[in-house]
Every structure is written in C-alpha cells, then in structure tokens.
C-alpha cells in the first residue's frame, strides 16, 4: 500500500543529495471486471510494456470495449403464410322448383291405371287359362301328278283337310291371315296359299279344307325317285298352317299370337299305272301346335 501525499511531505529525505521523489500519479480507480470474453484492450498491458523496455510510467488503461458486431444473416423464414380466411358468404346452387302438383297427380294417375289394368289382365288370365287349339290331319290326296325328268319339275294338286278343336270352355278363338303350305320333307315348300279367316266358339270343332296347286316346281333327286317308281311308291309330305290367333271373352281379348301347325312326315302312296294319284291312308294324324 502506497503512503499518502501528506505523510511524504512531513518527513525529510535521508540523504541530502538525493532527489525528491517524483510525484505519484493521480489515483485512478480500477476498471470494472470485464464480463465480455470478446473484449480487447485499447493499449498493450503493463507486463508487455515492461518487457519491451519502453517508458513504464504511463500505459494505456484497459477498458473493455465490446467486440465488433458480427454480421449474421437472419435465419431463413420457414413459416408459410396462413391461408386467407374463408368467405363469410356462401353461394349455394338454387334448388330446382318442384314440379307442379297437377302434373304429379296426372303421372300418378297414369301409373296407377297401368298397374290396375295389368293386375286385372293377370287375374282374368289366371281364371280363364287360355289353351292352344288342337289340330289333326284327316285327309291328304294328290291328283294330276305330272313329273318331267328332263328338268326335274312337278305339277300336281294337293287336297288336304285339317280338324281344329277349341279346348277352351269359356274362350272363343279367331284366326287371322291363315297361310297353308305343302312340301316334300325336308325340301322347301312346293306351294303356298292364303286361306280365309275363320273362328271357333268355346269347345267348338271345325274342319278346314284347302287345295294347293303346284305348277312346274323343282323336285330334288331323292324326292323324284318315288315319282319314277310308279304304283306302290311312297313319299313323305309336310302340311303346315300358320295364322294369328286371338282369344276372346266378351270384351276381354288376349294379345295377338302367331300360331304354327306342323303336320310332318305324312306318308302318301301312289296308285294307278301312271302314278298320277296318291293318298294318305290311315287314321287322323295329330299335328304339333306352337303358340
């Protein structure tokens, strides 16, 4: 600890030739401890100045200065902007106006009428139960048979009779646009003819007689063999009938249906010296009916 200035002026020096001591440097306070490790001194510290042999009296006082600021770039902005708020007013599609009440009632009435009509038709059909008519071939005869071997042509007349029976006890049957045909099995038709419309009452039986005329129709070799044989030869004939059938019960009628009558494999036997006539000999032959 250094003596104060008052005590040094009161006591004389020990040696008369010694120079008076230099006045002490003015008292200075110690700087506050530096809490910043990055601070630096304004001048060289005292130890470094004494080692270099420079003037030791005066030296720079170490004042802490803050380190020069480092230029750091701001961190990247990783936050995405918030979406805009939803609109406060929502626009909805306008609902279509409901159909008029009268139109809905009309549609409901039409649908109801169709349903009632269908139900009534189904009930009537269950009660009446329409059944297909039955057909049988009662007779078949060929006359004026003329075969030409030169051009394999045939001319003849076919006379046939069908027995039609209506098995329905409450329904009558009407036949429209009947069409009859005849052919040698299984070749194409030799002759086709339209017949007059006819009808049958409930439980009625009717005979349908018709004639088909063949003029210069082609006949294949297999069918022509029986024509060349003469008396005793036989050939299979197909007689068919097609018509539109409608069942009727008072004011109630069924829809139109196509009816097909097929009398196939009817064997006719030629007779006479010149084989100009042939006939079907046997009981009535049952025909197939598709309705």
TrEMBL record:
Q: Where is this region: Disordered?
A: 1-30, 70-96
Q: Which InterPro entries match?
A: NDR1-like
UniProt lists compositionally biased (Basic residues) regions at 70-80
* A single GO cellular-component term on record: membrane
What are the TM regions of this chain, as residue ranges?
106-128
Give residue spans, biased composition: Low complexity. Answer: 1-11
Where does the UniProt annotation locate this protein?
A: Membrane
KW Transmembrane helix (keyword) present: yes
A biological process (GO) of this protein is: defense response to other organism
On whether Membrane is a keyword of this UniProt record, the answer is yes
Q: Which UniProt keywords apply?
A: Membrane, Transmembrane, Transmembrane helix
What is the name of this protein? Late embryogenesis abundant (LEA) hydroxyproline-rich glycoprotein family
Source organism lineage?
Answer: Eukaryota, Viridiplantae, Streptophyta, Embryophyta, Tracheophyta
């Amino acid at each position: 600890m250094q003596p104060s200035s008052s005590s040094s002026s009161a006591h004389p020096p020990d040696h008369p030739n010694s120079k008076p001591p230099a006045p002490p440097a003015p008292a200075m306070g110690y700087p506050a401890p530096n809490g910043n490790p990055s601070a630096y001194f304004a001048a060289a510290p005292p130890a470094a100045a004494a080692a270099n042999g420079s003037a030791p009296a005066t030296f720079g006082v170490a004042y802490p200065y803050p380190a020069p600021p480092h230029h750091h770039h701001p961190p990247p902005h990783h936050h995405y902007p918030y979406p805009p708020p939803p609109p406060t007013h929502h626009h909805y599609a306008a609902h279509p106006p409901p159909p008029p009440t009268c139109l809905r009632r009309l549609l409901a009435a039409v649908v109801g009428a169709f349903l009632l009509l269908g139900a009534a038709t189904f009930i009537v059909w269950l009660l009446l139960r329409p059944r297909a008519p039955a057909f049988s071939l009662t007779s078949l005869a060929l006359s004026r048979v003329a075969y030409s071997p030169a051009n394999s042509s045939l001319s003849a007349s076919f006379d046939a009779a069908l027995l039609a029976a209506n098995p329905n006890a409450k329904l009558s049957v009407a036949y429209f646009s009947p069409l009859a045909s005849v052919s040698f099995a299984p070749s194409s038709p030799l002759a086709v003819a339209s017949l007059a419309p006819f009808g049958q009452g409930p439980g009625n039986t009717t005979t349908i007689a018709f004639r088909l005329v063949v003029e210069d129709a082609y006949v294949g070799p297999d069918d022509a063999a029986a024509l060349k044989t003469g008396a005793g030869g036989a050939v299979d004939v197909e007689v068919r009938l097609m018509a539109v059938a409608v069942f009727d019960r008072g004011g109630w009628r069924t829809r139109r249906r196509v009816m097909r009558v097929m009398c196939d494999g009817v064997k006719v036997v030629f007779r006479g010296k010149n084989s100009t006539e042939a006939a079907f000999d046997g009981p009535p032959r049952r025909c197939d009916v598709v309705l």
